Amino acid sequence: MIVAIVILVVVLLALAIGTIGVYNGLVKRRNAYQNAFAQIDVQLTRRHDLIPNLVETAKGYLRHERQTLEAVIAARGGAVNAQQVARGNPGDPAAMNQLAGAEQVLTQTLGRLLALSESYPDLKANQNMMQLSEELTSTENRVAFARQGYNDSVMAYNTKREVFPGNVIAGAFGFTPAALLEIDSPEQREVPRISF
Q1: Which is one Pfam family of this protein (predicted)?
Q2: Which residue ranges in the chain fall short of pLDDT 70?
């Protein structure tokens, strides 16, 4: 009888320790992807802060291209709003989709602005424009790197919450799946073509 009680206590203790370990692992993974999103947030804020300077620099040269400048400003506003929503709940599928879509629109309108600037030699040669374009390119690379880190953290978290016994603990304690921040642009997924 005492042996059975001791065995039962040992089994219950092992289950409790295992549950605590899995729970703590899920919390660590969730914190890791939320921290990874914070890195994206920093880089997107930097990107969004560069855009008004870029537009202001281009304004003097692109007087006849007001629609393009207004489209960039509107796209930036949409991206900033989507970023604030995602910041409130990183990993939420709706927030991540909204952020990805808004950033896609911003990237496209910025691309039009930069392509348009190629048609204006004085603007293209402007020192401020060159510096802002370089900073924007550098920031785009940082955003891509941060997004990769975020997606890796989300994948590790989702895997941990989907495998046994994590799926049981995750369901019992309300750990919901996190969404990746994916690129919808096919041209950004293509391998760059280099010709000699």
Answers
A1: LemA
A2: 184-196
Are the C-beta atoms of 11 and 118 separated by less than 8 Å?
Answer: no
User: Would you say 73 and 159 are in contact if contact means Cβ atoms under 8 Å apart?
Assistant: no
What's the chain's length in residues? Answer: 196
- The number of CA neighbours under 13 Å toward the Cβ of 129 is 22
What is the Cα 168 distance to its own chain's centre? Answer: 28
Give tens-digit pLDDT for 102-148: 999 999 999 888 888 888 777 777 888 888 888 998 999 999 999 99
For the chain, list the domains and their CATH numbers: 1-180 (1.20.1440.20)
Tokens representing 157? 């978290």
Look up residue 186 and give its two tokens. Answer: 């096919």
pTM for the complete prediction?
A: 0.82
Q: How many CA atoms lie within 13 A of 40 on its CB side?
A: 32
Q: Cis link prior to 52 (omega < 30° from 0)?
A: no
Asked if 95 and 88 count as a contact pair (C-beta separation under 8 A), the reply is yes
